[in-house]
Amino acid sequence: MITTTPDYVLTVRAVARLVGKWNRASTAEVVAGELTCDEVEPLAAVFLAAGDKDSAKAWITEHVATSSECRGHAEHPAMTTTTVVHTPTVVHALTCTRCGSNGVQPAVREWANCTACKHGMSLSEAMTCGCDGYDCVPRPAAPYAPGPGEAYTYPLCDYAFATARALGAGWEADSCHLGAWGLILSADGRVALRLYVDGTGDTGDLMLEDRHTRTEYVVPGDCTPAGGAARTPDEMHEWGKALALFVLSLGL
Q1: 57 contacts 79 by C-beta, under 8 angstroms
Q2: What pLDDT does 83 receive?
Q3: pTM value surpassing 0.70
Q4: Buried b or exposed e, range 181-217, using 16+ CB within 10 angstroms
Q5: Confidence of residue 44 (pLDDT cuts 50, 70, 90)
Q6: Cα–Cα nearest to 38, from 53, 60, 12
C-alpha cells in the first residue's frame, strides 16, 4: 500500500478554497437535498473545521428540510453557539528561504520551520503570496538574474576544451547541454573521458569518467592550479595544461 504525507500548507489552502466556494446559501438550497446523509455530514464537518459554523448549520438544515430520504441529524455542539463571528480565512503560501520547499509550518511568535531541511525563519520571510484578504495566490518569484560568471566564470565544458587544446593534435572536446560537463576525446576514439563534478558526495570532487569502461578517476587537488576555478583566459590555459598532464598520467 502506498501512503502519502499531506502537505500542511496545501491542505489548509484547499479547505479554505472549498469553504469559500460552497458556503453560499443559494448553493445549499439547491444541492443539500440531493446529497445523502453520509455525504452532507462530512461536508458540514469541513465547514466546522474551517470555523464556519453558520455554513455547517445551513447545509444540515437545508438537507433535513429538502431531502426525502433524510434520517435526521443530531446538531453538532459547535453549531449551537448563539453568537458567531465569522472572519474570512486567509491562508498564505509559505516557502522555505533555504531549500525552497513548501513544507513550511508556522510555529509560535511569528516563527516558521521547514519540515524538509529543518531551517527556521520568520513567518514574514517565508510568506510568498499575493493575498488580497479574501483569497491567496502564490506570488511569482523574483527572476533569478545574476551577472555572467558571478559564481564561476567558465562552465565545465570549457575546461574540457582547454584540456584538449593542451593535449595537442589528435585530441578534441565536446560539450553537454548547457556545458554542465565536457568530453575529452582522442581522434581515434580510443579515449573518451567525461569531465564532471561529483554531486553525490560532500566534497564536490572534480572527476574523469572513462566512457568505455565506466572507470572513474578523482582529479587530485594537488594536480590542479592553486587559487580555485579559472577566472581569466590565462588561468584557463593553466587549468588545461594541468588536466592534460593528469589525463596522460592515466596511461589510457
Answers
A1: yes
A2: 42
A3: no
A4: bbbbbbeeeebbbbbbeeeeeeeebbbbbeeeeeeeb
A5: confident
A6: 60
